[in-house]
Amino acid sequence: MSEKIDFIITWVDGSDPEWQALKDKYATHTAGDTRINRFRDWGNLQFWFRAVEKFAPWVNKIHFVSWGHYPTWLKLDHPKLSFVRHEDYIPEEYLPTFSSRVIELNLHRISDLVDNFVLFNDDMFVIKPVQPDLFFKAGLPRDAAILKPVISTFRNSICCNVINNMEIINTTFNKKQVVSKNWRKWFHPVYRRNLLSTITLLPYPHFVGFINPHLPISYRKEIFSEVWAKEQDILHETCLNRFRNRNDVNQWLFRYWQLVQGRFIPRSAAIGRYFSLTNDNRDVCQAIINQKHQMVCLNDDNRDPIKDFKKEKELIRQAFYEILPEKSTFEL
User: Fold this and answer.
1) Could you tell me if 135 and 118 are in contact, meaning their C-beta atoms sit under 8 angstroms apart?
2) Nearest-CA neighbor of 258 among 214, 298, 210, 213?
3) Torsional sign, CA 144, 135, 151, 253
4) Which residues of 199-213 are buried (b: 16+ CB within 10 A; e: fewer)?
5) Is the dihedral of CA 193, 198, 201, 207 positive or negative?
6) pTM for the full model?
7) Contact present, 79 and 24 (Cβ < 8 Å)
8) pLDDT digits (tens, 9 = 90+) for 17-73
9) Residue 39's pLDDT is what?
10) Which end of the chain is flanked by fewer CB atoms within 10 Å, N or C?
11) Beta-carbon contacts of residue 30 (< 8 Å; ≥ 6 apart)
């Protein structure tokens, strides 16, 4: 591996009474998405660290980003761990924040972050061995430039945020010129059946959206700085919102910027699997135990309440334990 690659994971302890009190202080009836499943803990964070140590031992450093809380078992003095509080890198005028938008849009400000990094949410896991070139190659992020309409994929505030992203992309870049300049990256055979979506949407004069795998994203730090320099106003307005808002942009804006500039190396979109957790997660458990995918996202965003949360939580924990029974060196 010629260049260092860092991992970033963002985490919140929704059960922290001090954090809850602060959130309640700023929350209003219009305060974005404050559902309990936005913040509740599935108790599987230690498996994230075990997986990285076992399946991606080449990682340079892990930046663990939180409001300030951390699990009691985490070894904060681990040489590969950087414990990052929001106040350590987010400008003071944006704090306190309870919006993932603000937390993610400012990541490039982390002091010891290397140029190449992979952003994980705390519901995204590596579940089998992965190599550095899955994320970066020749100094460029690996990604898939595949067109897909926004409305067919997202809903509610996320849909609005993606539309806001696309407005900026279409205002800044000319679709015809973008595709012509890097047509090999837009029509790469590694995309396989997804090529049909891009071909179908090609006649439209503007970008209508991109496929978003809901998996870890590879970034160059310079992209964040560049977009901030050119889109200061909308990023600033987003960061002033303490809770997620329909008028926000999100970190996918940086990803789209990388794609349309051709600053990536094509990679299959089928690098993992997204699961929406429900009242029956047997398919999730089997996917983990059988290690069917390189990575999985276990998203707790289902609109139907999980009736027996403790039961489903334990089943998923046991599935992780099947493949990751031993403590990592990140655990006390």
Assistant:
1) yes
2) 210
3) negative
4) eebeeeeebbbbbbb
5) positive
6) 0.94
7) no
8) 999 999 999 987 555 555 555 557 888 999 999 999 999 999 999 999 999 999 999
9) 58
10) C
11) none
